[in-house]
Amino acid sequence: MLTVDVALSFFGIAVLLALSPGPDNLFVLMQSAMLGKNAGLAVVLGLCTGLIGHTVAVAVGLAAVFAASETAFLVLKLAGAAYLLYLAWGAFRAPVSTAPETRPPALSHWALYRRGIIMNLTNPKVSLFFLAFLPQFTSPMRGSVALQTISLGALFMLAAFLVFSAIALFSGFFSAHLQKSAFTQRLINRLSALVFAGLALRLLLSER
């Protein structure tokens, strides 16, 4: 199993990685700004759930398939980019209203949770990152490598949850005030569409 020193050093690095600008924290930031902190937290839970899939993939060796297969990597990359473009189009066309009674129904927390899962699982770069990163903190001398990998994945999820939740709360705090202005709502929607489209382009251009 993991030693305390290994766990603490890994957790510290994971926090720093979660803080660095990337697709996931930008995704949380924009969703929270558009829909509020509770919506952002639902997305955070979905993103962290998606990390379970990447962790298991590394533990059982599935991530190695994406590292070795150009076709598998391309298919998942195209699926992820298509989903991000779908979100960009939805944000661009989102209606604006300053009157609460005339606003369109908000997405359910379950729908936002699913959005976070899909966003995370359709990014093959996460699987490849985990495949390169997690094994550096495992050792056969400490027992089952698979169990160590799962433990590391859980620590990474905890770090991501704490950092992304802070981002959601910070961005969501301003959301209620921003929703009072139609101009600001429209600006946020356009910025969100631009961010999602940019993330899609970045994913399309990424290589293994």
UniProtKB/TrEMBL annotation:
Molecular function per GO: amino acid transmembrane transporter activity
Keyword ATP-binding included in the entry's annotation: no
Highest taxon above the source species: Bacteria
Membrane-spanning ranges: 6-29, 41-66, 72-92, 154-175, 187-205
Main localization category: membrane
InterPro entries, A to Z: LeuE-type
Keyword Transmembrane included in the entry's annotation: yes
A Pfam cross-reference name: LysE
GO cellular component, as recorded: plasma membrane
Membrane topology category: Multi-pass membrane protein
Protein name: Threonine transporter RhtB
Organism: Neopusillimonas maritima
